[in-house]
Amino acid sequence: MKTEFESIPLVKNEAKKRFEIEIDSHFASIVYKETSLQIALIHTEAEPELAGTGAAAAVVEKTLQYIENSEKKLLPFCPYVFAFIKKHPEWKRIVDERFEGYDQL
Q1: Cα dist. 92→1, 33, 82 in Å?
Q2: Would you list the DSSP string of 10-61?
Q3: Which of 4, 14, 73, 75 is 20 to 30 Å apart from 43, CA to CA?
Q4: Starting at the edge strand that comes first in sequence, how are the strands of the sheet with 26-34 ordered?
Q5: Residue 57 contacts by C-beta under 8 Å, 6 or more apart in sequence?
Q6: Phi first, then psi: what are they for 73, rounded to 5°?
């Protein structure tokens, strides 16, 4: 994660069912679904003003840290999150082993 994003807090916006970070009034976010044991990440999005800044990667990494700290398992349905974990295989440790694409990570 780029250092300029490290101090930006991750917000779990339960009303919108998304994890989000705000940069200069613009949002990068991940839509999620949650159970008592798992958090499924569905879709990552960054507003056009944040394109190419690393904001999407930052919200993914902060969300993965949140999931790990919550001691839940991850279901990476979002293709961006899935690709992020392939690029950073140390995060496979939080993926639920029963996830259909687990062996491709």
Answers
A1: 17, 19, 10
A2: PEEETTTTEEEEEETTEEEEEEEEE-SSEEEEEEEEE-GGGTTTTHHHHHHH
A3: 4
A4: 11-13, 18-23, 26-34, 38-46, 73-76
A5: 1, 2, 84
A6: -100, 150
Task: Render pLDDT for 2-54 as a digit per residue (tens, 0 to 9).
Answer: 899 999 999 999 999 999 999 999 999 999 999 999 999 999 999 999 999 99
User: Tokens representing 70?
Assistant: 């919550």
Instruction: Give residue limits of the domains in the chain.
Output: 3-98
CATH topology of domain 3-98: Aminopeptidase (3.40.630)
CA distance to 21, 45, 89, per residue, from 13 (Å): 10, 14, 27
- Give the three-class secondary structure for 98: coil
